[in-house]
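Hi! If you just cloned this repository, the fastest way to understand the data is to look at a raw example. We've pasted two of them here, unedited. The first protein comes first, obviously.
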Amino acid sequence: MQLYTHAFQGPDGKWYIEYCPTTINQPCPVCEANKVMHNSSDDSLKKQASARKRKMSYISNIFVVRDAKAQQNEGQVFLFRYGVRIMNKIKDLISPEFTDIEASDPFDPDTGSNFRLRVVTNGPFPDYDKSTFDKASPLGDEATIETILKQCRSLEEIVDPRNFKSYHDLKAKFEGVVGTSMPANDDEVAVTGR
């Protein structure tokens, strides 16, 4: 499941952390304000808009086979939120670039692959490049797979419109964080936090 979010700090330290309604094809006051700023000729406005752009992430149900640091998680299903780098690894497995690599759906309980999540620190950010998929193998027998699948949560619930604030509420929060009214059109640009 793909999800967009905004997370940025305003000039007085207040945070704006919200689901972006573009996830469900609805208008977003932050994206609208950013578009106006990006279209301006002022580089400082473009930089400011870039700092508050939406971030894309993905959410999947995962079954924890082994967790050396938290063994109580083993055998449990959790929602796992991840970024583009891990999604690219999944896409490469589903549609390999090279013909000598067999395509595989890692989410298939019978023919999927375990994912070895390896996180290293690369500056201030976690780096997942060393993560790999094992060879395809069944998750277990039919009864085991059924038990695991019963633990999975609905991903559609996450993007249910009820989980997104209204445009009006998001606009009010956004203006409260950035400290100004949103630009009405391309001729009017609100500047904050300079």
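Ok, and the second one:
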Amino acid sequence: MIIALAGQKGGSGKTTVAIAVSAELYARKKKTLLVDADPQGSVRTWGAVAAEAGKETPTIVAMGANLWQPGQLPALAGGYEHTIVDCPPRHGDIQRAAMMVADLVVVPCGPSAMDAWAVAESVDIINEARKVKPSLLAVVLITKKVARTTIGKQAREALQEAGLPLLSTELGFRVPYQEAPAAGLGIAQYAPKDPAAGEVRALVDELMAFANPKKKRSAHG
């Protein structure tokens, strides 16, 4: 399965989620490809940090707006069980290219209603892609949620009108999400007993349900 982390808004956690999911899949002994499609190159930096620390990572490659073309990602991804693509914000051409090859698009969204409102622009790009690829699945993932606040509830209510289902899993605003990449590790490998690790495991379980149609999906609209 090819999963694209996309969204027009910056700072929503796309790269963090891409690293966390790919690292968890790799830890589960899945042959995993992590594609850095963001010119900022944060995924490649994480890979370099991991290599310097002697840590193993999924295979990491850099690609751009031509990743959808024959001989590019469609050919490369065939050698892997799962491929995760980290897309940059505000680069519609790269996001569209990723959606042309993806099976599932995950749109990370911050915990506020204003973050949720920004998802509408991402939905427009997804709907454009679906004109060419009607089978494209897309979901929203709430990130950076602060516990014991009503902000997450407000975001969920606003997202109900966005037209995309929401994943049941939510990622909290937790320190390991910032510290793990700097250590060249995945979240669950860096802090296995932290609630963040449980969130990442639950997220991967939920995403893998899309790869197995017989398994009940927990995303809901």
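That's it. A detail worth noticing about the second one: The longest helix spans residues 113-132.
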